[in-house]
Write a structure and sequence with these properties.
This protein has 167 residues and is α+β, with helices and mostly antiparallel strands. It has four helices and seven strands; from the N terminus they run αββαββαβββα. Strand 1 and strand 2 form a beta hairpin. The mean pLDDT is 82. Residues 1-123 form the Reverse transcriptase domain. Pfam families: RVT_1. It comes from Pyrocoelia pectoralis.
Amino acid sequence: MNRRNKNYESTYFLYDNKFYKQIQGTPMGSPLSPALANIYMEDFEEKAINSFALKPKYWYRYVDDTFVIWNHGAESLNNFLDHLNNIHPNIKFRMEVENNNTIPFLDTLLTKLPNRKFLHSVYRKPTHTNKYLNALSHHQSPSLSTTQCYEVIIISITLLITSKLQK
C-alpha cells in the first residue's frame, strides 16, 4: 500500500463519545473528497453505460442526482437499473419516472410538452418548510452565499438540459 492510500484508509471520527474508524470511502469533510467521488463516479458511469447493450439518449449527473432520458421502453430501463445496481455493492441507484409528463430534478420541475419542448419551474419537495435563516443570524455567512450559488448552478444546469433536449 502506498502512502497516498494510507492517508485515506486511516480516517477516524468520534460519535457518542466513541471513536470509530471509517473503513471505506474518502474522509468525511475533506475538501478533496467531492472531487475524488466525482472522478470515480464518472469512470463508473462510463463503464456501466458502455457495458450495457442499450444506451440512454441523455445522461446528466449533478453530485448524486442523475437525469436520464431512455428511449428503449420500460422493461429495458428496469434491466439497465438492475445492471447499474449490480456493478458495485455499495453504489445503488433509485429511479423516479415521469408522472403526467413531469419529473422533479434537483430543485426544478421539468414538464414535457406535446411539441417535444420542456418547461421548467421551481420545485419544492413535500418536506420543504419554507423557512429560511434570517440574514442577521449568527450563522456562517459563507454557507448562505454558497447555498445561493448552488441554486444558481442548479437552475443553470436545468436550463442547459432543457435547451439541449429541445434541439
